[in-house]
Amino acid sequence: MRWRELKDLPPGLIRLRTPYEPEARTGAKRDLGWSGYKVHLSETCEPDAPHLSTHIHTIPAPVNDDAVLEDIHTTLAGRGLLPDEHLVDAGYIDAEQIHHARRDHRVELTGPVKPVKPVSSRQQAVSGHSDKTRFTIRLGPTHRHLPRRQAEHHLA
After folding, report:
1. What SS3 class is residue 68?
2. Distance (Å, rounded) from C-alpha 63 to C-alpha 141?
3. Nearest CA to 89 among 24, 29, 46, 37?
4. For the purposes of burial, counting CB atoms within 10 Å of the CB of 37, is it exposed (0-12), middle (13-18) or buried (19 or more)?
5. Cα distance between residue 118 and residue 9, in whole Å
6. First CA to last CA distance, the chain
7. Distance in angstroms (rounded) separating the CA atoms of residues 109 and 73
8. Which domain of life is it from (predicted)?
């Protein structure tokens, strides 16, 4: 047995935390770390009705929140409890999740979108991507004249 540096530890999903509970893993979110599991709770939130728990989903601690949203929606749909609008925090929502919730379950996913991690200049050079500072978006109608004096309207 030897002490390992943080960089030498295996990923949280495969690292044993305790011999007494072999499925428990280490999780971290922002400045908080813990051992065990992560619990996802779903409840009704109609203004004129009681708030009732409709689903509880438990996963290993290091699994990202957005990885369970499809399972939650599928389970709620199977029980006839799928909401028209699902309020979630930033850990569950991105453009792909919004699209899949609408397409697969007709659920409007609502919540703050995760901030995009800035792309370093090295990543830009390697990948050929440009960050948002290289683009300009001008909103408003513009006109392009076509043959026979027809004007085409579009947003620039």
Report:
1. coil
2. 45
3. 29
4. middle
5. 27
6. 64
7. 11
8. Bacteria
Instruction: Map out the domains of the chain as residue ranges.
Output: 12-117
pLDDT tens string, the chain, 156 residues long: the values are 788 887 887 777 777 777 788 788 878 777 888 788 889 999 998 888 889 999 999 988 888 888 999 999 999 999 999 999 999 988 888 889 999 999 999 999 999 877 766 666 665 555 666 556 666 666 666 655 555 555 555 544
DSSP letter string, 102-142: HHHH--EEESPPPPPPPPPHHHHHHH----GGG-----SEE
Look up the pTM and report it.
0.63
